[in-house]
C-alpha cells in the first residue's frame, strides 16, 4: 500500500490542492507530475498521471502532483500554460525546500508535457537543472513545446488521434531524440498503462543509450 499525503499550497492564483506519494524507504529523489489539459477533464487523478507518480515511487522517489488552477479545489482559472508553469515552479520550490539536496525529475502527460518542457528550461537557466524528464503523449503540434535534453524518456501511442505521432516526430527530428511508440495505444493509453511503467523503469537507470556507431560495432563482433 503506497502512503499518500494530501496538501495545499499557495500558488499564483490562490490555494492549490495536491498529493504526495511516498516510497517505502527514504526518498532518493523528487518527481513532479503534471496532468493533462484542465479544460478537457485533466486532473491530478488522471490514470496516466497516477501511473507516472506510482512508477517514480517504485524507483524510490517521492512524487508530487497538483491540480492546476481551476481544477478540483485549486483556486483560479486556466491560464493557457503560463500560470500553470508558475504553479509548477512553486511546487518545485516547496518540494526542494522540504527535501533539500535531492535530484528532481519532471514528468507529465499531454498538456503537462508542455508545462514541464518549459519548466525544465527555466530551472536550467537558474542553475538548478532537472535530473531527467519523462514525457508521455507529448503535446507537440497542440502547444509550443520547448526543446528537451537528449536523455529525455518520451513515450507516445501509435494510434493517438489527439496528438498525432507525426507531430511528435516533427518536433523531435531537429533534436535527434528518439521516442518509444506503443503499438495500438491511443492518447489515454487505455489497456496500455503497464507499458509506461515498464519503459520508464527500464530506462531510468540507463540514461545513455548506445549510439549508432557503437551498435554497428557490436553487430560486427
**Count of helical regions:** 6
CATH superfamily: Alpha/Beta hydrolase fold, catalytic domain
The side-by-side strand order for the widest beta sheet comes to 1-2-4-3-5-6-7-8
- The count of domains is 1
CATH architecture designation = 3-Layer(aba) Sandwich
Order of helices and strands: EEEHEHEHEEHEHH
Q: Quote the CATH topology.
A: Rossmann fold
The CA-CA distance between the termini, in Å, is 47 Å
Low confidence ranges: 210-221
CATH class identity: Alpha Beta
**SS-based structural class?**
alpha/beta
Estimate the helix proportion, in percent: 25-40%
Q: The biggest beta sheet, please?
A: 8 strands, mixed
Strand content: 15-25%
Number-wise, the strands total: 8
Radius of gyration: 17 Å
Structure report:
The protein has 221 residues and is α/β, with parallel strands linked by helices. The chain has one domain: 3-Layer(aba) Sandwich (Rossmann fold), CATH 3.40.50. The protein has helices spanning 47-58, 82-98, 111-125, 165-172, 193-204, 212-220, and strands at residues 3-11, 14-22, 29-34, 61-66, 104-109, 132-136, 153-157, 180-182. Strand 5 (104-109), helix 3 (111-125) and strand 6 form a beta-alpha-beta unit. The radius of gyration is 17 Å and the shape is globular. Mean pLDDT is 92; it is low at 210-221.
Amino acid at each position: 500500500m503506497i502512503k499518500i499525503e494530501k496538501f495545499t499550497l499557495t500558488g499564483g492564483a490562490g490555494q492549490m490542492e495536491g498529493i504526495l506519494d511516498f516510497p517505502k524507504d527514504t526518498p532518493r529523489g523528487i518527481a513532479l507530475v503534471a496532468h493533462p489539459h484542465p479544460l478537457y477533464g485533466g486532473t491530478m487523478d488522471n490514470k496516466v498521471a497516477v501511473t507516472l507518480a506510482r512508477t517514480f515511487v517504485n524507483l524510490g522517489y517521492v512524487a508530487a502532483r497538483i491540480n492546476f488552477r481551476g481544477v478540483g479545489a485549486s483556486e483560479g482559472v486556466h491560464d493557457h500554460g503560463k500560470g500553470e508553469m508558475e504553479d509548477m515552479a512553486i511546487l518545485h520550490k516547496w518540494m526542494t525546500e522540504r527535501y533539500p539536496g535531492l535530484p528532481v525529475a519532471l514528468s507529465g502527460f499531454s498538456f503537462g508535457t508542455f508545462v514541464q518542457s518549459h519548466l525544465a528550461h527555466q530551472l536550467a537557466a537558474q542553475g538548478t537543472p532537472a535530473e531527467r524528464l519523462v514525457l508521455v503523449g507529448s503535446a507537440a503540434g497542440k502547444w509550443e513545446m520547448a526543446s528537451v535534453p537528449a536523455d529525455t524518456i518520451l513515450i507516445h501511442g501509435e494510434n493517438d488521434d489527439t496528438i498525432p505521432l507525426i507531430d511528435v516526430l516533427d518536433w523531435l527530428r531537429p533534436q535527434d531524440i528518439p521516442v518509444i511508440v506503443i503499438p495500438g495505444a491511443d492518447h489515454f493509453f487505455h489497456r496500455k498503462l503497464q507499458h509506461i511503467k515498464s519503459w520508464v523503469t527500464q530506462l531510468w537507470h540507463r540514461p545513455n543509450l548506445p549510439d549508432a556507431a557503437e551498435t554497428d560495432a557490436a553487430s560486427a563482433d
